[in-house]
Amino acid sequence: MTTKNVLGTELQPCSYDPLTGFYRDGCCKTDAHDLGSHVICARVTQAFLDFSVASGNDLVTPRPDARFAGLKAGDRWCLCALRWKQAQQAGVAPPVVLECTHLRALDYVTLEQLLAHELQPSKSRP
Questions:
Q1: Is the alpha carbon torsion for 20, 24, 30, 35 positive or negative?
Q2: In which band, very low, low, confident or very high, does the pLDDT at 125 lie, cut at 50, 70 and 90?
Q3: What is the pLDDT of residues 76-103, one digit of tens each?
Q4: Cβ atoms within 10 Å, residue 126
Q5: How wide is the angle at C-alpha 23 spanned by C-alphas 27 and 68, nearest 5°?
Q6: In DSSP terms, which residues pair with 122 in a beta bridge?
């Protein structure tokens, strides 16, 4: 079965460097085990990283035990849908890559919200 993105086409990889995804397979795939719904592929910004740390989710500090090297501005990462929504409401939502954002993201945010923060295709890279 093909996993779909928010555009209704096949889900594309988000990032292999750093290796992202709930299953660390490069894709924003999800299932019942992914309680955080890591389904929105975003290119993180410093403003978002600062917001995330201030909100209790440090995405900057490396945690080798969790296979996490820490993020820096410009990295692409599969974000929890609710965290992205909080950032959007706070005015610091990072740009998203629609082709790499899982269809389940629409359970939390609208396509219009995602389109308003779309990363331009010329700036996309897995």
A1: negative
A2: very low
A3: 999 999 999 999 999 999 999 999 999 9
A4: 16
A5: 95
A6: none
